[in-house]
Amino acid sequence: MRILVADRGTRIEEFETWMKENGAEIDGIEIAQFPNYEYGIKANKNFSQGDLLIAVPRKVMLTAENVEGSLLGPLLQKDAMLQHMPNVALSLLLLIEKFKPDSFWKPYIAVLPTEYTTVLYFKTNELQELKGSPSLEPALKQCRNIARQYAYFNNLFQHSSDPASNLLREVFTYDLYCWAVSTVMTRQNFVPSIDGNSMLNALIPMWDMCNHTNGKLSTDFNAEKNRSECVACRDYKAGEQIFIFYGPRTNSELFVHNGFVYPENEHDGLRLRLGISRGDLLQAKRVELLGHLGIPAIGDFMLKKGPDPVDGRLLAFLRVFSMGPEHLNHWLSSDHSSDLVYPDCALETDVESKMWKFLLDRINLLQHAYTTTLEVSLQYMQ
pTM for this one? Predict the structure, then answer.
C-alpha cells in the first residue's frame, strides 16, 4: 500500500501562504519530501531544543466546534451519533469542506494525502496476515464500525433534505468516508474549546505534517494567544527533518490508528488480557487481595519492551494469581501487601516459579497463534 501524493506538491506553496496570511508562525520550516516518509517538516535554519517551531491559530484549525455553524449544523441538532461522536462529526465536516466550493480550508485539504495506510485500506488477504497479532481484533472492529457508520450515513443522506445531505448525497462513497475517517484518525489532536470548559477533536494544519519519533510531548495550547504551539523536542540543524512525539503508544496502536509501526518505539509492548476465573475455588480471596492493590480481577496488562518487561502491576497480578490458600491468607492479613508490586518482595520460591511458568506458557501460546515465525516475516519484508 502506497500513499498517493497526486498533485499535493504543487499546492504546498499556496497552503503555506494561506497559513501565514491567517496568522500562523512557520518561519524557518517548510514542507518537504523525505525518503520513506513521503512528506514531513524540514528545518531551514538551526533550532535549539525548546525553540518555537510552529504556532497555529485557532482560526485555521478544523475542530468539532466548527460543526455547529457549518452545513452539517442542522443535522447535528437531530442526529444522536453526530452529537455523541465528535470524531465522526469532524470526519463528515471534512468531507463537506472538501466539496464546498468556497471552503475556507480548501488550501489545507489540497495538501492532505489522497490515501492512507490505515487498516481501513487493507484487503481481506492483508487482514488475514494479522492472524495471531494483537492488532487483528481492533483492526476488524474498526473496519466493522466504519462500514456500519458508512451504511448509516449513506441511508441518511439519501432520505434527508438538509444542506449536508444535499451536498454529499451524490458523492458520498465508502472509499471517501474511509479517507475522511483516516485523515481525522491519523492527524487529530485535542485543543480546548473556546470557553475552555472541554477538549475538542481538532485538525491542526502544518503541525499535522510532522512525523513521529521517540521523545516527549512538545505541543501545547497557548490560551492567551489562542493558538497551538509546538517547540523543538531536540536540537535541529538546517536541512534536517523535524519530528514530534505522538504519545506513548505501542506499535500495535500506531499500526491500527496511524497506519505505521516504529521499530525503535520505546513504548512498544504487548497487551495481555488476564483475569481470575469464576471457577477458581480461591476467586474471592484473589479478588479481595487484588482489590487491596487497586488491580482489577479482569483487565489488560502490558508486557513491556526492554530489560524489565514486567511492571509492578502485572507482577502483583501474577503473584496473586499463583498463590495457594496459605499465601493468600498471609497477604490478606498483612500490612505490607503493597510490597507485592516490587521485584524484591520476599515471596516463596514455589509461588514465583509457578508465576513465571504461567507467564512463559501464555507467551508461547500467543507466539504459536501466528501463522509465520519472526524470521519468515522479516525475510518477507525484505
Answer: 0.89
